[in-house]
Amino acid sequence: MNKPFILIVEDDSAVRNLISTTMETQDYKYHTAASGGEALIAAVSQNPDVVLLDLGLPDMDGVEIIKKIRSWSNMPIIVISARAEDQDKIEALDAGADDYLTKPFSVEELLARLRVALRRISYTQRMGREQVEFVNGDLRVDYASGCGYFAGEELHLTPIEYKLLCLLSKNVGKVLTHTYITKEIWGSTWDNDIASLRVFMATLRKKIEENPAQPQYIQTHVGVGYRMLRIEE
């Protein structure tokens, strides 16, 4: 299997060196860029598996880089930024980022987020070949029949719950913002849609979580959105 190739976009030399050294310890191949211009050239010419992106670059904002990459590629983008406000996270995720890590960060958490992104690549490739069903732990979604199952038993889902389950399963490992989800489910982003989303997510959790208060499948990112977790086999 080829080693993952990581593009590190960071203008702070100390942080860039820390991330580079971390990649070396994991035997990942990597390339570094200190500006948005360099990052876009590297993304096009080297086609990395994952981009680790700082938002505060000297020549352009990182959100603009996300938008440019998303115009031609779905390569995973993990933001690593000192911007800790929910609105900053939402803006980056809505632009197309897959994940958001706030500085200062631990090396262990960075590697965990990176493993999630790499697993998602593998899963997406399989789904591109299959697109028949989704299996994750005790959860199974049969896209062909339009049915969901948990621990072998068919789930009695409302149409909205099933649409939510499909949306989350087809983006497993990726944080989906409230805005993105409501646009996909209802075609709008009114405040009452977000309130409805919380209600439907709660009822969906009751059907697929053994303990909804400690969910294994659907993770809440407070103020941001939701993510379906990949259950380790």
From TrEMBL:
<comment type="function">
    <text>May play the central regulatory role in sporulation. It may be an element of the effector pathway responsible for the activation of sporulation genes in response to nutritional stress. Spo0A may act in concert with spo0H (a sigma factor) to control the expression of some genes that are critical to the sporulation process.</text>
</comment>
<dbReference type="GO" id="GO:0005829">
    <property type="term" value="C:cytosol"/>
</dbReference>
<dbReference type="Pfam" id="PF00486">
    <property type="entry name" value="Trans_reg_C"/>
</dbReference>
<dbReference type="GO" id="GO:0045893">
    <property type="term" value="P:positive regulation of DNA-templated transcription"/>
</dbReference>
<dbReference type="GO" id="GO:0000987">
    <property type="term" value="F:cis-regulatory region sequence-specific DNA binding"/>
</dbReference>
<feature type="DNA-binding region" description="OmpR/PhoB-type">
    <location>
        <begin position="131"/>
        <end position="230"/>
    </location>
</feature>
<dbReference type="GO" id="GO:0000156">
    <property type="term" value="F:phosphorelay response regulator activity"/>
</dbReference>
<dbReference type="Pfam" id="PF00072">
    <property type="entry name" value="Response_reg"/>
</dbReference>
<dbReference type="GO" id="GO:0042802">
    <property type="term" value="F:identical protein binding"/>
</dbReference>
<dbReference type="GO" id="GO:0032993">
    <property type="term" value="C:protein-DNA complex"/>
</dbReference>
<keyword id="KW-0902">Two-component regulatory system</keyword>
<keyword id="KW-0597">Phosphoprotein</keyword>
<dbReference type="InterPro" id="IPR036388">
    <property type="entry name" value="WH-like_DNA-bd_sf"/>
</dbReference>
<dbReference type="InterPro" id="IPR011006">
    <property type="entry name" value="CheY-like_superfamily"/>
</dbReference>
<keyword id="KW-0963">Cytoplasm</keyword>
<dbReference type="InterPro" id="IPR001867">
    <property type="entry name" value="OmpR/PhoB-type_DNA-bd"/>
</dbReference>
<keyword id="KW-0804">Transcription</keyword>
<protein>
    <recommendedName>
        <fullName>Stage 0 sporulation protein A homolog</fullName>
    </recommendedName>
</protein>
<keyword id="KW-0238">DNA-binding</keyword>
<dbReference type="InterPro" id="IPR001789">
    <property type="entry name" value="Sig_transdc_resp-reg_receiver"/>
</dbReference>
<feature type="domain" description="Response regulatory">
    <location>
        <begin position="5"/>
        <end position="118"/>
    </location>
</feature>
<feature type="modified residue" description="4-aspartylphosphate">
    <location>
        <position position="54"/>
    </location>
</feature>
<feature type="domain" description="OmpR/PhoB-type">
    <location>
        <begin position="131"/>
        <end position="230"/>
    </location>
</feature>
<dbReference type="InterPro" id="IPR039420">
    <property type="entry name" value="WalR-like"/>
</dbReference>
<keyword id="KW-0805">Transcription regulation</keyword>
